[in-house]
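Reader question, answered in our methods column.
A reader sent in the components of a multi-part assembly and asked whether the whole thing could be modeled at once rather than chain by chain. We filled in our standard form and ran it. Here is what they sent:
COMPLEX SIZE: two components
ENTRIES:
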Amino acid sequence: MKCSEFLNELTNYLDGALDDRTKAELEDHLAWCHNCYVVCDTTKKTIEIYRDSQLYELPDDLRSRLRTAIVSKCHARKKTGPQEV
Amino acid sequence: MSAIEKVSEPVSDELALVQSAKGGDVGAFEELVRRYDRNVFRIAQHITQNREDAEDVVQDAFLKAYSNLEQFQGQSKFYTWLVRIAVNEALMKLRRRRPERTVSLDEEVKTEEDSLPREVADWSPNPEQQYTQAELRDILARTIQGLPPSFRTVFVLRDVEGLSTEETADALELSIPAVKSRLLRARLQLRDRLSRYFQKRESGDGKQ
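And here is the structure of the entire assembly that came back:
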């Protein structure tokens, strides 16, 4: 497997979507190609950091304000019937 | 363990809530809001990069969903249907704010960062621990902001919110190969940009 082929399969590899044979070829490549090993490892880390980051959490006070507004507009809409937003 | 709760409610329970809401039960719809408001807010803020716009998107997306519940036929999950509405609302906000730039999920963006770099710098072990929580959030927000909207939307749905490739394709009305291609490029570009902050240093503590 060449580095460019590894790159094409990287997303499928990280998502566990490769067949056994391609996965074995890719892991064989990673065993000797340090660059690809680092790209694979740090891409995985990138995903984990974003997933665990709690970036843009909805604060409780805002959450409750938004929900109250949505529910009251839903009640108003129920009285007047469906309409385009 | 992930700090972000994943959407894993039983589908049958959810369909019952949707049915009740269709019948005019606002309480059932409120439960759906409670279930997904945090997800919609995160997605909206990732796309719009603006707090006020994200708040508007949460309200507009849920109200639009409520008004159009009859159109939800149950072929996809309610959440995927809701995400589709929210993404469209968020993109509209972005277009209004940046009228000089066309914002489309179909845009083809070619960048030099797509090719495999020749010299790849390894990261320090546990690189995120070099920064405080606030510093780290700032780095992550600034880094993802630099991505084209079509890339960051796919990344957020797939990797942050945990939608499957098929659900992401469904929510964004893209083909599966298009989702995979954007996801790969988004992941590689983020990795490359984060390396500035996380790569191993010859000396010092790794901070810039």
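What stands out: Confidence is low (pLDDT under 50) at residues 204-208 of chain B. Helices of chain B lie at 11-22, 26-48, 51-67, 78-97, 133-145, 149-160, 165-172, 176-198.
Send us your own complexes using the same form.
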